[in-house]
């Protein structure tokens, strides 16, 4: 699946959403109500229907949920517009585009959102449109390249040991090159405390299944 085909598919889904748990719905982000996103009523049910329709497996629709790490980072950007104003921003592993959209709303000069999932690239496009902001999208894996931006944002990207092994060196290299790097991390237990400054901490309402606490404590981190 390429990004234009994924975009056409999401546009069809949005135009005729249906009424079940397998629909997309334009909704306020709980911790960032300034941003509205097309999210799945239930991402697992949406995924199951899309796979059944396609007749083959599809990547997990991470873009169809607003992850706590992204919500905290987006909140931080909107509450501290000096971080983004007039700067070139890259949102790595953008998912729905929440963080990228918050950066655009906070006055960034240019925002690029990157993700390897074509559906995420499409979701950023429809979500940027819904919030009337300009966000450029780029598909593909940037983790072996150098960052062309002033501010690099990574919301809920360090969610597995495999991701940490690839993403953390990329973030550290960018920081060493003089790029400001901010990470939104809900404490999934994979991020070493060493070499990380805690910039802020937010109580983000829980939207994930199987998490019983009503809020999740999320840190905004800066590698140094
Ligand atoms: C948990 S989601 C977080 C999405 C978003 N940043 C947020 O906070 O809502 C992780 C995202 O990482 C993306 N991803 C995984 N590996 C990647 C890579 N090598 N480069 C870019 N994105 C990647 C996935 O496709 C997924 O959209």
TrEMBL record:
<keyword id="KW-0689">Ribosomal protein</keyword>
<keyword id="KW-0489">Methyltransferase</keyword>
<dbReference type="InterPro" id="IPR029063">
    <property type="entry name" value="SAM-dependent_MTases_sf"/>
</dbReference>
<keyword id="KW-0808">Transferase</keyword>
<dbReference type="Pfam" id="PF06325">
    <property type="entry name" value="PrmA"/>
</dbReference>
<dbReference type="InterPro" id="IPR050078">
    <property type="entry name" value="Ribosomal_L11_MeTrfase_PrmA"/>
</dbReference>
<keyword id="KW-0687">Ribonucleoprotein</keyword>
<dbReference type="GO" id="GO:0032259">
    <property type="term" value="P:methylation"/>
</dbReference>
<dbReference type="GO" id="GO:0005840">
    <property type="term" value="C:ribosome"/>
</dbReference>
<protein>
    <submittedName>
        <fullName>50S ribosomal protein L11 methyltransferase</fullName>
    </submittedName>
</protein>
<dbReference type="GO" id="GO:0016279">
    <property type="term" value="F:protein-lysine N-methyltransferase activity"/>
</dbReference>
